[in-house]
Amino acid sequence: MDATENQEPHQPRPNRTPNLLFPLKPIYVFSILILFLAISFSTNLYRRASLFPNPNLYKEFLKFIHFTPNVNYHNKVTEPPYCVLWMAPFLSGGGYSSEAWSYILALNNYTKNQKNPFFKLSIEQHGDEQNIEFWNGLSSEMRNLAIQLHQNEECRFNQTIVICHSEPGAWYPPLFETLPCPLSGYGKFMVVIGRTMFETDRVNPEHVKRCNMMDLVWVPTDFHVNAFTQSGVDPTKVRKIVQPVDFKFFDPYKVEPIDLASIGRSLVLGFEDVNSKKEFKFVFLSIFKWEYRKGWDVLLRSYLKEFSLVDNVALYLLTNPYHSDKDFSNKIVEYVENSDLETPVNGWSPVYVIDDHIPQVDLPRLYKAADVFVLPSRGEGWGRPIVEAMAMSLPVITTNWSGPTEYLRDENSYPLCFEGMSEVTQGPFKGHLWAEPSVDNLRLLMRHVMSNPEEGKSKGMQARLDMMTRFSPDIVAKVVIDNLHEIVEKIG
Ligand SMILES: *[C@@H]1O[C@H](CO)[C@@H](O)[C@H](O)[C@H]1NC(C)=O
Ligand SMILES: *[C@@H]1O[C@H](CO)[C@@H](O)[C@H](O)[C@H]1NC(C)=O
Ligand SMILES: *[C@@H]1O[C@H](CO)[C@@H](O)[C@H](O)[C@H]1NC(C)=O
């Protein structure tokens, strides 16, 4: 999902041990202990289930994917004849990962309710490194489903539709260390589909070439259909397949807000009155990977210029490292010190960085604790946290460009204006363009949503409704299945 994800694909994922620079509150020590126990427990689990194979051991992988024809195959009349092998970073966390999960959960439910589904689904880890912390944060239902779908077997090459759900650099032959998709190159499987997206205004020539090697290319939005075809991807191969959002999981009526004062957090700017139990009047939440593209600089600048301590608001950032260390507090302080921002007379409005790993199962409670979700990104593939916030009925403020234009409208959100396009200045996508979100407009919208809570609530309600009617798991599962049907009918 992240353009810059491809920039240093060989760099190992940063160490995820808890940052001990911050004072250890008792609750924090407790959570470290829990985390430790969870890791030691699940390490055994995954070894047994072999869900985290070492990418070097190619043979190990082959053990789990039995494409050898089964002699009894034709007698199993109730078995669906086709296989769909979905290869994605299921165990990695991040954009592609959560997107892939949303599809297989949707497809699994959909096919479960059918008497004779025409395919059986199996999954494989591909496209990014495994992250044990992410795995541990999944519900046991999801983990069990992963293990179950991973063990599906007995499919013929020529009856298998492979979906390579990742950035094109991971496709066969991969440009970095990962299980190749399709496994053994092109031409062997019935159909190979590349599912991908991008965050700038174009697709680079290497990726275009890789897209054109696929039988089909699935992208999530009209923005991508245009960007991909204009960059040279064969238009007859490109299909728009939107993404599901699990509105039953992200349901504001089902969860209690997480207690923001009790989670591991660092106060980076502003004051915390430890004697006062009073809540902030208004909480801004942002969730993103720490990279320039996400516009964290725009967010800090706008927030710090617009608000001061007297406003009684707070900004919470849930961020994770992207090829960087996780000392975000220092990065923020450094940014502010090197900027022209002046400390308000009343003092900075508080900025918190959430240090705890928030397990996926607790995400709805985190959204619930916020009043508005804000992400002034320069470019997004889809924007998972945005649609999750919308499903949670939060008003969202986010840049009105790229992927999110698929679902943002004045009635369901606060689309953020941008001041033209700016150039990507680093990495292999140097020279591509993305949007430069407007600081002035962001200030205005943040102030506006805070001053008009009723309007924000009604946009939030509309947002949830839009998510349910356009991107519900059942609706999107049907879109996927109809497309698969079409493929099978053309070939079969
Ligand atoms: C799948 O179905 C179960 C129960 O049948 C339901 O609880 C769950 O929310 C569904 N998940 C999705 C993604 O539709
Ligand atoms: C698939 O391959 C098997 C043998 O490997 C062959 O018998 C069968 O006809 C093939 N099916 C299709 C649809 O090509
Ligand atoms: C958002 O962008 C679309 C074009 O993609 C435009 O039609 C719409 O007016 C914009 N909305 C706002 C609030 O600027």
Keywords:
492 residues, alpha/beta, Rossmann fold, 2 domains, 15 strands, disordered N terminus, binds 2-acetamido-2-deoxy-beta-D-glucopyranose, transmembrane helix, Glycosyl transferase family 1 domain-containing protein, membrane, transmembrane
Question: Can you give a write-up of this model?
Answer:
This protein is an alpha/beta fold and 492 residues long. It folds into two domains: 26-244 and 473-491, Rossmann fold; 265-471, Rossmann fold (3-Layer(aba) Sandwich), CATH 3.40.50.2000. It is 34% helix and 16% strand. It contains 14 helices and 15 strands. It has helices at residues 26-49, 58-62, 95-112, 132-137, 140-150, 205-213, 222-231, 296-306, 328-337, 363-368, 384-391, 439-451, 453-471, 473-491; strands at residues 82-88, 119-125, 160-165, 191-195, 216-219, 238-240, 265-269, 282-289, 313-320, 351-354, 372-375, 396-399, 414-416, 418-423, 433-437. The chain has a seven-stranded mixed β-sheet with strand order 7-10-9-8-11-12-13, sandwiched between helices. A six-stranded parallel β-sheet has the order 2-1-3-4-5-6. Helix 3 crosses helix 14 and helix 8 (296-306) packs across helix 12 (439-451). Bound molecules: 2-acetamido-2-deoxy-beta-D-glucopyranose (3 copies). The site of one 2-acetamido-2-deoxy-beta-D-glucopyranose has 5 residues, from loops.
